[in-house]
Design a protein that fits this description.
330 residues, alpha/beta, Rossmann fold, 7-stranded parallel sheet, two-stranded parallel ribbon, 10 helices, 13 strands
Length: 330
């Protein structure tokens, strides 16, 4: 049997799709998730039921912030030489209400993963989910990994940037090969109910107001989930190396669609897929939000061959079809 790959946050949106692709490719995957109630746990459980169809999938319910529990998992199901670390407390707006959960999951939990990787002989690669939120209110577009990221506008962004710095230090001190991936506005089937595709689709179907912030003057680098997973797995197979015992085997890469879409065009794609107009409510910018995101992916493409292929005109109908099927909406 092939050596197991550990995926944290396996019941989450990106985690589920990543595990599914790995299993379809014949990998042996151990998934861990604490199944917290940040959003409806039944969606996480439904994702896990899909993964349970594969004999090479093992799921462990555990919190990455519990070091003893993670150490036990590592000993019983590992050791793991490849780790895709996607578990985190997500959401910019939620961080305004529940800051302590971000420190526990995104800092303490990340430290625990780093420590376990550090003590694993022959460890190969840790791929860590960061976020485009770290770019804050940078004016230069598209966002490149060389841009300054010392002015986060949310605690969520601050914890993700802190995670990157922690990873850098562990690569420097212990030679752990690591890649931090800055994801840009991921959407697609099985997506979270706190994300815009769900909020907009649900509101339009139910004839409710569709909240549009900053009066609609926003752009996002919307990236379809299949493209995200392709990037994650391409990165996993190309770990950074320390050349001639010099340098640090650590890097940061953007994973996005390389295209800033107008928010109203995004809403329009949902309207078209549903065959129904939205009742739009224009609102001011929310605290912690940014006006525009746009990923420079040149380095990612050069290193891994990553090339996103899904436009919102292709991706949104796939999401809406899944939404209507999963939630039983006509």
């Amino acid at each position: 049997m092939a050596e197991p790959i550990l995926v944290t946050g396996a019941a989450g949106f990106i985690g589920f799709h990543t595990v599914l692709r790995l299993l379809q490719a014949g990998a042996h995957v151990v998934g861990v998730d604490n199944l917290n109630d940040y959003y409806d746990v039944s969606l996480k459980q439904a994702r896990l039921r899909e993964l349970d169809n594969f004999k090479d999938f093992t799921f462990i319910k555990e919190d990455i912030a519990n070091f003893e529990g993670m150490e036990k998992l590592w000993k019983e199901h590992g050791p793991f030489k490849q780790v895709i670390h996607l578990a985190a407390q997500a959401g910019v707006r939620y961080s305004l209400k529940n800051p302590h959960t971000y420190v526990q999951s995104n800092l303490v939990g990340h430290l625990n993963i780093l420590e376990l990787c550090r003590h694993t002989e022959g460890f190969e690669h840790l791929v860590f989910a960061s976020s485009s939120s770290v770019y804050g209110k940078n004016k230069k577009l598209p966002y490149a990994v060389e841009d300054r990221v010392d002015q986060p506008v949310s605690l969520y962004a601050a914890t993700k940037r802190s995670g990157e710095l922690m990873s850098h230090s562990y690569s420097h001190l212990y030679g752990i090969p690591q890649t931090s991936l800055r994801f840009f506005t991921v959407y697609g089937p099985w997506g979270r109910p706190d994300m815009s595709p769900y909020i907009f689709t649900d509101a339009i179907i139910k004839d409710k107001k569709v909240p549009i912030f900053n009066n609609g003057d926003m752009k996002r680098d919307f990236t379809y989930i299949d493209d995200i997973v392709s990037g994650v797995l391409a990165v996993l197979e190309t770990p950074p190396k320390r050349e001639n015992d010099e340098g640090i085997p650590y890097r940061i890469l953007n994973i996005g669609n390389n295209k800033a879409e107008n928010l109203m065009d995004y809403v329009g794609a949902i309207e078209k897929a549903l065959g129904k107009k939205a009742d739009i409510e224009l609102l001011p910018m929310q605290a912690g939000d940014v006006k525009e995101t746009y990923a420079d992916i040149d380095e990612t493409t050069k290193l891994t061959g990553y090339k996103p292929t899904t436009s919102i005109d292709e991706g949104i109908p796939k999401y809406v079809a899944w939404f209507k099927d999963f939630y039983g909406e006509e």
